């Protein structure tokens, strides 16, 4: 039952369709203080339409809305219509709904089974998996889950950076200074060394760059030696990346990276030519966009292709293959220009589906206020970071609950959950400061705090021998009301997360619900009163369900014990 919607309907009837329903819904707020009611409708905008004061309008509306058994009281306050819901009715209704729907509570049908392709993670092979790629991975994964909850079919695509001039450099470097055994033993580190070494040497010896260009050209032309080396570098890198994906529980539907489009680019270039969009510029081929954006480079003067060319081919391929209605690119904000150009070119090519394309940018991860760099010696190996998080989580879990079974698994869930939550609780465009200690605290705004609250709820249920029964739910505890209003808005939160491509909505919500629950837990002796036990446990069960589902939407597991 959507109580907010009932209020929307009532207002809509009274306003004689002067504002549409979705607008009314958007305007409804939660009053600042609980004493002021549960929903508030501001009348300031209406003042212009009705040429009357907000105070009068609010008074008039409040007067005309019929109090039903769901509204306890309706009150005009300072230009707002404040509604007090009937606590008992609504509490029981909300808990009933959560328990009967379980993890489907909050499911929306916005997507109508339409496909959304989500391009995320997309690290560059032969390089360490960076913090930026971690952000892309956790944000993209959460968005896939949130879109799925909204009725879309997500296709998760790992657009590996496995093509481009850097592979020419790597091949040259390996042929000159490489050692097979070393690469096999520690592929990413060794390939990075070779890459760095190439740049050092090329500073002395300019001809190396020419040679690298030649080798990339060989690669694009299918030269056997080049392809073999490339394939080997790629396989080794992918193996390393898989360890990380496995650790954090992320899977893809496709890992077709840039190389996959090698034989699909010529067609794109032809298309551009046919549509008269391609122009010569200093020997290179470009598409002029408009006055605000620089031209999009399609082919270099040596005939090799570029990142943008491959993205053009990829977008077209994805539309042909999946017929997406939406297509997201979860990539750092330093690539904003690239995506603007890409989308403009596709529009110029006349593809109507260009409207479904969205760049979902994000900020950086900082350490002591500086960008965490993967260059030179300062490599922060992600696997190492995750393992450290798990280690610290093990310590924390042991302190809290030394007799816990399957400690190892719980520690992994908590350590990884902490890293993911720390990222997702921040609005994605903000830069975030990296601190393992902060992430792993059991108190405060952390993943472990939410997980711990979930475990606490689960353990009360088992201690109280809870038997599910949603026949006679009847919640009367005053302290439960904050929890109820929080449970009630979960579907709205999901909708907002979807509209803003913003998982932080869900993360912040989980913190709020956890706080409300812990307050309840601190002030109500849940199991002591035999008569009230069942209704209280039903409430606890609803919290447990929503916390678990919320965490799942962020890609975080929820242990039952910790
Ligand atoms: N590999 C790229 C990088 O690390 C990100 C690729 C993003 N996806 C895309 N379709 N361009 O910068």
Keywords:
562 residues, alpha/beta, Gyrase A, domain 2, Rossmann fold, Isoleucyl-tRNA Synthetase, Domain 1, 3 domains, 4-stranded parallel β-sheet, 3-stranded antiparallel β-sheet, 22 helices, 55% helix, globular, binds arginine
Description:
It holds the Pfam family DALR_1. Its EC number is 6.1.1.19. It is an enzyme of class 6 (ligase). Belongs to the class-I aminoacyl-tRNA synthetase family. The chain is α/β, with parallel strands linked by helices and 562 residues long. It has three domains: 83 residues, Arginyl tRNA synthetase N-terminal domain (Gyrase A, domain 2); 203 residues, 3-Layer(aba) Sandwich (Rossmann fold); 159 residues, Isoleucyl-tRNA Synthetase, Domain 1 (Orthogonal Bundle), CATH 1.10.730. Helices cover 55% and strands 10% of the residues. The protein contains 22 helices and 13 strands. The strands form four sheets. A four-stranded parallel sheet has the order 5-4-9-10, with helices on both faces. β6 and β7 form a beta hairpin. The radius of gyration is 28 Å and the shape is globular. Bound molecules: arginine (ARG).
What's the gist of this structure?
With 562 residues, the protein is an alpha/beta fold. The chain is built from 22 helices and 13 strands.
Q: How many structural domains does the protein architecture include?
A: 3
> How many DSSP H or I helices?
22
The CATH C-level class name of the largest domain: Alpha Beta
Bound molecules: arginine
């Amino acid at each position: 039952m959507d109580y907010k919607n009932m209020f929307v309907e009532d207002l809509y009837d009274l306003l004689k369709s002067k504002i549409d329903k979705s607008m009314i819904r958007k305007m409804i707020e939660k009053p600042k203080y609980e004493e002021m009611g549960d929903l508030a409708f501001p009348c300031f905008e209406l003042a212009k339409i009705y040429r009357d004061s907000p105070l009068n309008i609010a008074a008039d509306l409040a007067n005309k809305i019929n109090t039903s058994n769901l509204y306890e009281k309706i009150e005009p306050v300072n230009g707002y219509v404040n509604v007090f819901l009937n606590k008992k009715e609504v509490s029981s209704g909300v808990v009933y709904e959560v328990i009967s729907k379980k993890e489907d509570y909050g499911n929306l049908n916005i997507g109508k089974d339409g496909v959304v392709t989500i391009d995320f993670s997309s690290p560059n092979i032969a390089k360490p998996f960076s913090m930026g790629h971690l952000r892309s991975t956790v944000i993209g994964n959460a968005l896939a889950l949130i879109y799925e909850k909204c009725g879309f079919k997500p296709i998760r695509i790992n657009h590996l950076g496995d093509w481009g001039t850097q592979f020419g450099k790597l091949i040259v470097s390996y042929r000159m200074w490489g050692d097979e055994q070393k690469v096999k033993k520690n592929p990413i580190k060794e390939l990075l060394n070779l890459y760095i070494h190439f740049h050092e040497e090329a500073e002395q010896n300019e001809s190396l760059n020419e040679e690298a260009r030649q080798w990339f050209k060989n690669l694009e032309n299918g030269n056997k030696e080049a392809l073999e080396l490339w394939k080997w570098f790629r396989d080794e890198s992918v193996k390393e990346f898989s360890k990380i994906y496995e650790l954090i529980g992320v899977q893809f539907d496709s890992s077709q990276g840039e190389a996959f489009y090698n034989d699909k680019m010529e067609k794109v270039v032809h298309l551009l030519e046919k549509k008269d969009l391609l122009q010569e510029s200093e020997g290179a081929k470009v598409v002029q966009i408009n006055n605000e954006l620089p031209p999009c480079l399609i082919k270099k003067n040596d005939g090799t292709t570029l990142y943008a060319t491959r993205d053009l081919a990829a977008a077209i391929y994805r539309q042909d293959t999946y017929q997406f209605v939406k297509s997201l690119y979860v990539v750092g904000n330093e690539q904003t220009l690239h995506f603007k150009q890409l989308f403009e070119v596709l529009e110029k090519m006349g593809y109507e589906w260009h409207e479904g394309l969205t760049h979902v940018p994000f900020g950086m991860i900082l350490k002591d206020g500086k960008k965490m760099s993967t260059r030179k010696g300062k490599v922060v190996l992600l696997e190492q970071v995750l393992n450290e998080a798990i280690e610290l989580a093990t310590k924390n879990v042991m302190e809290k609950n030394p007799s816990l079974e399957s400690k190892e698994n719980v520690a992994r869930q908590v350590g990884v959950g902490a890293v993911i939550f720390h990222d997702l609780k921040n609005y994605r465009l903000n830069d975030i400061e990296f601190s393992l200690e902060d992430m792993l605290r059991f108190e405060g705004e952390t993943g472990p705090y939410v997980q711990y609250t979930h475990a606490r709820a689960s353990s009360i249920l088992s201690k109280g021998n809870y038997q599910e029964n949603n026949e006679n739910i009847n919640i009367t505890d005053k302290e439960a009301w904050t929890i109820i209003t929080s449970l009630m808005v979960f579907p709205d939160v999901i909708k907002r997360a979807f509209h803003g491509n913003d998982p932080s909505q869900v993360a912040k919500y989980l913190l709020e619900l956890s706080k409300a629950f812990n307050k309840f837990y601190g002030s109500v002796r849940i199991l002591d009163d035999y008569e009230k036990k069942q209704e209280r446990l039903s409430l606890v069960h609803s919290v447990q369900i929503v916390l678990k589902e919320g965490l799942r939407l962020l890609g975080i597991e929820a242990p039952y014990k910790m």
